[in-house]
Design goal:
The chain is mainly alpha-helical. It is built from four helices and two strands. It has helices spanning 9-12, 25-52, 57-65, 74-78, and strands spanning 79-81, 89-91. The chain has a two-stranded antiparallel sheet with strand order 1-2. The N and C termini lie far apart (48 Å).
């Protein structure tokens, strides 16, 4: 308790990582930018393969299953389905690796 290794007040009680309740406006803008960047990569790959006269089933599956950024509702851009949450949604910033993993599709009705 005493000495050089005593617990400080922020560390002794409460969460170690403090996440805000909702995304800020700059975080939302960066999320939209990331979604658009992925869309442009998929479109570039698709046009390049189409010029060669071939296609990849992964790219075709992505285009069939995943909505583009402009097709998504704001609810789907910034929140994800979570069965443990009270209203079955939680902010995307509370998902581990949310800047690197695509979370575009949610269960129907949620």
């Amino acid at each position: 308790m005493f000495g050089p290794f005593r617990a400080t007040s922020p560390l002794s009680g409460g969460l170690l990582w403090k996440l805000p309740f909702r995304l800020s406006a700059p975080q939302k803008a960066r999320q939209r930018k990331r979604l658009r960047a992925v869309d442009t990569v998929i479109a570039t790959i698709d046009t390049a393969l189409r010029k060669q006269g071939s296609s990849l089933k992964e790219v075709e599956r992505w285009k069939a299953e995943m909505p583009r950024e402009e097709e998504m509702r704001p609810k789907d851009k910034y929140t994800v389905f979570d069965r443990k949450e009270k209203r079955y949604r939680k902010g995307i910033h509370k998902v581990p690796k949310w800047t690197r993993v695509s979370q575009r599709v949610n269960p129907p009705g949620f």
